[in-house]
Amino acid sequence: MKRAYFLCLLVCLSTVTALTRKQEAAEQSRRKASLPTTQRKEQVEQTEEQEKYEDEDELSDQCPEPNGYFPDAEQCDKYYDCRDGKPTEKLCPDGLVFNDFSPQHEKCDLPFGIDCSKRPLRQKPQPSAHCPRMHGYFAHEDPRNCDTFYYCVEGKFNMITCPDGLVFSEKTGICNWPDEAQKKGCGSRELFNFTCPSVDDSVAATHPRYPDTEDCQYFYVCVNGQVPRRSGCKLGQAFDERTGKCDWARRIPECKDWYKDQLTDAELDALENPPPKPKPSGGPSRRKGARPA
């Protein structure tokens, strides 16, 4: 009898607890609904205002000014066209990066000379034959080929060769002296098989010159007496070791026949003795103060 009484008591208490929880939830809903209309409106407005400020903060990161062109913070070839504070995301052609020299100018450029160290990301490359990207200057695939490179536009390439004695620099995108290009395997010693002779400081300061023993037209300049750079004389001339200057090859005994199989005597004569340039004739004088006759 007592056991039945206690079981009945437990069931009744649980029922009362459940009813109490339902009543509590209903009371909370009633209280929320009974809030003054102005208070509910203020809560909604505060939420909307907060979201508006968050959106404006995001926009201000991309648009430091209401109008202009601004770089992306992480990707060097991405930028934003901002109009009245609203950004439109844009992307440079593959291989070019955004030049942020002025917010008033929308300009994509080759990456040489543009600092992308703080925004190093780039879009996924779109490679083609000899072109790692669609636009740009790129080194030859063979690292031993020091003076050949490719100029790519819209994924189509033109192969270009540097002038004699120069090396393509991947850092600057132009041909440069081997010591300045600093391309592995393309230093002066590897290219020329020439080493500057040891000299004292006074001679080194004059950047001494030495003949190329295999080519009369060319010679080596040893910068500060140490770094060799191959240079050359113009067509028809040769380097004279005695004077350290270029002169007409036929005047230098050891090089007098250098152009024998390249140029005729008449062509050499024309190079050495070019015809005088015709003087301008006719028309009034343009000298200051000149008066008509």
Automatic annotation (TrEMBL):
Domain Chitin-binding type-2 intervals: 60-118, 128-188, 193-257
Biased amino acid composition, Acidic residues: 45-60
InterPro entries: Chitin-bd_dom, Chitin-bd_dom_sf, Chitin_bind-dev_reg
Record keywords: Chitin-binding, Disulfide bond, Glycoprotein, Repeat, Signal
One Pfam family here: CBM_14
A cellular-component GO term for this protein: extracellular region
Alphabetized GO MF terms: chitin binding
Superkingdom, taxonomy of origin: Eukaryota
Segment forming the signal sequence: 1-18
UniProt-annotated stretches for the region Disordered: 23-64, 267-293
PANTHER family documented for this protein: BCDNA.GH02976, CHITIN BINDING PERITROPHIN-A
Name of the protein: Chitin-binding type-2 domain-containing protein
Species this protein is from: Odynerus spinipes
